[in-house]
Amino acid sequence: MSGTMVNQELKQDPAKARLSSSIAMIMALISFSMLFATLMLGYFAFRFTSEVWPPLGMERISLGIPTASTVVILLSSLLYLCFESKVSQKSLKSGRFYFTATFVLGCTFMIIQTLLWSKLKELGIFTGTSVFASMLYAFTWIHAAHVAGGIIALLFLIPTVSGTREHEASLSWVQNVGQYWHFLGIVWVIMYFSLFVF
Amino acid sequence: MAFYEQHIHPKPTTFLSKYIFSYDHKVIGKQFLWYGILFLLVGGLMALMIRWTLAYPGQAFPIIGHFLFPETGGAVPPDTYAMLFTMHGTIMIFYAITPILIGAFGNFCIPLMLGARDMAFPLLNMLSFHLAALSGLILMASLFTPLGAAAGGWTSYPTLSTLIGSPGVGQTLWSLAIFVLGVSSTMGAVNYITTIITLRAPGMGYFDMPLTIWGLGLTAVLNAIFLPVLGAGVLLLIFDRVFGTTFFLAGAAATTGTGDPVLFQHVFWIFGHPEVYILILPAWGIVSDQLSFFARKPAFGAKATALSMTSITVLSTLVYGHHMFTTQMSPLLTQTFMTLTMTISIPSAIFFANWLGTIWKGSIRFHSPMLFSLGVVFVFGLGGLTGLYLGTVTTDLYLHDTYFVVGHFHYTMAASVLLGGFAATYFWMPKMFGTIMNEFWAKVHFWITMMGLNGVFFGMMLVGYGGMHRRIYNPFIYEFTQKLIPINTFTTWAAIVMGLAQIIFVINFVHAVFFKKEQASDNPWEVGTLEWTIPSPAPHYNFKDIPVVKCGPHEFGNPNLSGGKDYQYQTEELA
C-alpha cells in the first residue's frame, strides 16, 4: 500500500479559504437568482399574453412608494460599498458609520414595504383581486423575506465592526454579506421597473 | 487542487455530538442513508398497496389492510389510492432516492475520494440534514390530517393541487415539505460544488477525479440551479392555497383576471426534467467507476464519459417541453423539444458504449457491487430506449399518461437508481461501517430484485402500450382493459417478490452494521481511489496527512506494479 504523503506546500491560507466561501456565495446567489427568475418568468408569461394590463381595469399603482423603496435600497447598497472599502482599509471607526447607515436603511426599506402593502389594501387591491395583484403581493413578500434575511446577516457583522474578529475573517464576512445585499438591490430594481414602471 | 488545508476536527465524545449534531460528513452521510432506507420502506409499502389494488380491486390488502382501512373491510379506498400514488412518488423521488444517492453517498464519498478531511462547510452540511429531517416530518404529518395527504400526483398539477382539487391541509403540507427539502438540497449542492472546486487533493485535476465525483458534482450543479425553480412554483402554490392569490386558478388573465394552471406545469418541468438527471447522474458515475474496478481495466474513454455526462447535464435543461406535448403547445415548439430530446441520445450512446468498452475482455470479478452495476447497465439501456417513444411527438400523443410512461420512468429513475444505490451500499459498506455484507445473500438479493423489478416495470410498459391509463383506481371498468388483468396480476406478484427480496437486504445490512464481528480489510475490493488508502472504517479525520495524487482513479494492469497487485493507488507513482 502506498500510504499518504505530507504536502509541505499546503498550508493554512486564509485568502484561499476566503475564496472558498466566495465560491459558495456565488453558487448560492445563482440559486436565489433562479428563484426570482422563475417568478419573473411567470410575470412575463402573463404580461405578454394579456391584451390589457393591468387586467380587469385595475389602476396602476402610484410610483411614489415603490420609488422611495428603490432609492432607499440603492442608497443602502452604496453605503455598504463604502463600508466594505473602510473594512479593507482597516478603518473601522468610519466603517461603523456606514454599517449603521446600511442597517438603518435596510430596516427603512422594510417599513416602506409595509406601507406599500397597506396602500394596496386601501386601494381595494387584495391578494385575490387579480393575478397582477397576486404578483404584487407575492413578489414583494418573497423579496422582503430575503431582505429580512439580509438584515439578520448584517447582524453577523457586529463582531467585525466591534473589532473582535480577525481582519482576514472580517474581509470574508463583509464580502459575502455584501454580495447578498447588492443582489437584493438588483432584484428590487428589476421588480421596480417590471412591476411598477412598465 | 486544494485551496487550503482543513483543520482536523476534535473527535466527538458524546452521543449528541457524534450521532445527532455531527459535523462529520461520514456521519451525516450515514444519517442520510438511514433516512433514505426508512422512507424507501414506507414508499415501497405504498407501492405494494397500489399494485394490490390494481391486481385485486376491492379486495382487502393482506395482513395490515383491516387495520389501515377498516371502513372498507381492508380494501384501499379510492381517495386513499390517489394519496398513495402521490405520496409513493413523492417519497421515492425526494425522500428515498435523493437522500441515498446524493445525501448519503454524496456526503460520504466526496471528501474521501477527493482526499479532503471534510466538506468545505461542515455546519451547513449538518443543517442540510436537519432541514431534510424536518421536511420528512412535515410530509409524514400530512398523512394524519383530517382530509388526508396530498392526492394530486407527485407532479401536483393545479387544479388538482389548488384548494378546488385538494381542500385539505395535506396538499399545503406537501408543498411546504417540498420547499423545505429544496432548501436543504440547495444547501447541500452549494457545499458539494465548493468542496469539489476547492478541496481536491494536491495533484488531482478534474479528470483525475473518480467518475462518481463527476456524477455527484454535476448533480449538485443541477440541484443548485433548478431546485429554486421548483421552490418558486410550490411557494406560489402555497400562496394560492393559504393567502388567496390566483396564480394557478383557471382562466385567462385578460378576461377573468385570474391565473393559469399550465404555468405550474412549465415551472414544474423546467425543474422536473433536470430532476431525472439529478437522480441518475450519481448512479451513472458510481457505475462507471465500479465497472472499471471489477473488470480490472481502466475505464474506457473516461474523459469522454465525463464529458458526455456534462453534455447531458447541459442538454437536460433544454428539453422539458417533451413532458407537455399534450398541452396544446405550438407544433413548432413540440418539434424543437423533440429534436433537442433526441440529441440527448448522442452523449448517452457515447458513455453507454464506454461502459461496454470498459467490461469488454475484462477479468470481471462478479462481486455483489458489480452485479448491481451490470444490472444498471441493463435496466438503464431498456429505460433509455423506451424514452425515445415518449420524446417523439407522434408516439407520445398515444402513450401519454399511460402505464407505458410509468414503466419507462421506473426503469430509468427507479430501477437504475435503486440498483446503483445498492451497488454503492455494498461497495462502500467496509469504509462506512468497517464490515462487509454477506456476499451470498447479496447475490441472492440481486437476482430476486432483478427478476422482480423487470417483471414489474416491463409489465407496466406492456399494459400501458395496451392503453391502460395511470392514476385510475379501477381501470378495469373499461371493457378493453379487462384483458389486461392477468398482466396486472403478474406485475403485482412480481412487485411482491421484489418487495420481499428487500427483507434479505435489510437483514444483511443490519447484521453487518450491528452484529458482525469480522472487520473488513482496508481495501477489500482492491481498487486505487483515495478512500481505500485509509483504514476501514474511515477515521473521523479521514486523512492524517493530505494525500498527493499522482495518477487517475482507474489504473489497472500496469506492468511496473509490484507485490502481485494489479491496481495502482492514486497516490502511487510508477516508473
Description:
- The complex is a heterodimer of chains A (198) and B (575).
- Chain A has a single domain (21-197), classed as Four Helix Bundle (Hemerythrin (Met), subunit A) (Up-down Bundle), CATH 1.20.120.
- Helices cover 77% and strands 0% of the residues of chain A.
- Chain A is built from six helices and no strands.
- In chain A, helix 2 runs antiparallel to helix 6 (167-197).
- Mean pLDDT of chain A is 90; it is low at 1-9.
- Chain B is mostly helical.
- Chain B has a single domain (24-533), classed as Cytochrome C Oxidase, Chain A (Up-down Bundle).
- Chain B has helices at residues 15-20, 25-55, 65-68, 78-114, 122-141, 170-198, 211-242, 253-256, 261-295, 302-315, 331-343, 345-359, 368-391, 393-399, 403-433, 439-465, 485-515.
- The two termini of chain B are 23 Å apart.
- Chains A and B meet through helix 1 and helix 4 of A and helix 6, helix 7, helix 8 and helix 9 of B.
**What is the CATH superfamily classification of chain B?**
Cytochrome c oxidase-like, subunit I domain
Oligomer: heterodimer
* 3D shape of chain B: globular
Total beta strands of chain A:
0
What name is given to the CATH topology of chain A? Four Helix Bundle (Hemerythrin (Met), subunit A)
Largest sheet of chain B, in brief, is:
none
CATH topology of chain B: Cytochrome C Oxidase, Chain A
Helical element count of chain A?
A: 6
